[in-house]
Structure formats: structure tokens, C-alpha cells
Predict the structure.
Amino acid sequence: MAIYDALGATYGRTRRSDPRIAARIRGALGDVGGVINVGAGSGSYEPVGTVLAVEPSRVMIGQRAVGAAPAVQGVAERLPVRDGAVDAVLALLTVHHWDDLAAGIGELRRVARRRVVVLTWDQRVFRERFWLVRDYLPEAAAFDDLRATPVDRLCELLGGARQEVVPVPHDCVDGFAAAYWRRPAAYLDPRVRAGISLLAQPGEDTLAPGLARLAEDLASGRWHTRHAELLSLDAIDAGYRLLVADL
């Protein structure tokens, strides 16, 4: 069973495209024509010109919008298209779920004629700068340590890639892990956590002590005192990176 058959039931409600991040992805793609979205989920950030989405989870495919690009059930390691099928391939916050990273990146390079764009995160930056995993949920950070791929390793597999920082706006629409960095109470909502694999996969029992501490610190005002500097920021670098490889 694909991981998001179990975790992805509410994904379409909590993980919508943020227009500022979407603009960065479009900029990374440039003037390419056809695009394949690999690990496409419910279709967030698919640009005009997307000709196919590849996604292992039927639950996620079922949440795609009417009129979205056609989707097939499949995995990155075995893309069901010919060599050089499209100008560009997207892989957005998905590589950490793949069983064989090298095979999956090899398939992206096989299918794309001009460019591969990968959205991922730098685990070292994420651990140091994101207060939730640093101060409250180190167990979740440890879970990510096992699946996060060093950015340098991804660049190597891509045959070389430039890195672009993707700042997280304070009112980010897309509810990924660091999206609520200035809205801490959101992490106490199980519906929000259900759309974040970092928080959904370790299990509620694992997270319960840290979430209880967060609830206490919010009620007492301790969180706001400790993180007062965040409240005046419009965006932060939480480690998210766009990797752009020209072929």
C-alpha cells in the first residue's frame, strides 16, 4: 500500500498551492514546454503545460481537481514513459518517500529533455532553525534524519544542480511541516498534523509529550516570549530548497 493511501485522506484540504512558492517553481522551470509531475500527490503546484502526473497513491489521485492533468498510478523508479518524453520533470517534496533514490533520480533524468526541478529540504538547516522539531518534537526530527537525503547527494545524482532557497511565508497556504512557524497553535490540530508526514508517521503517542509542552507554553505565553523575534518576520528560511538541473 502506498504511504499516502493511509496518510493522505485530508491532503486536499490542508495542502494547497501557495502562490509565492508556486511562482518560484514556475521560475525554476523557465520556458519549458511539457512537464511530468512525479510523486504528484493531489496536484499542488502543477504548472500549465503539465501533461502527466505520476503518483503511487489512489487516495491522492482521487483528490486531484477536475480538469487537472491526467494521472497514472506509478512510482518514480519506473516511470511509464519513453526516454526524453517531455521538456521538464518536477518532483516536489517527494524524494524522501522513494524506495530507491538513485533509480528515481535516474528516471527523472531519462524522461526529461531539458530540466529537472526537485523541491526538498536541507535537514541540517531544518533541525537548527525550525523551533517545533528543535524544542518540542526531537522525535520527529529523528524520524526525518532517517529519510532526508543530503542536498549535496541529490545534486550529485542530478549530475549537478543549482540550489535556490524557498522562504516560507508567515501565512503560507500550503500546510507542509514548517508552514505554521508563526502560527504555533496550528500544530495542536490533528487535522493539520494529518497532512504532514513528519508528524503523521511517527504516531500520536510519540508526539504527545512534546505537543503537551507546546500547549502549555502557548497557554502561559512562554512560547511568544521565547520566540518574540519571529512575530515580526514575514518569511523564514527553514531549509527548503529548489534544485534545478539542466540536462
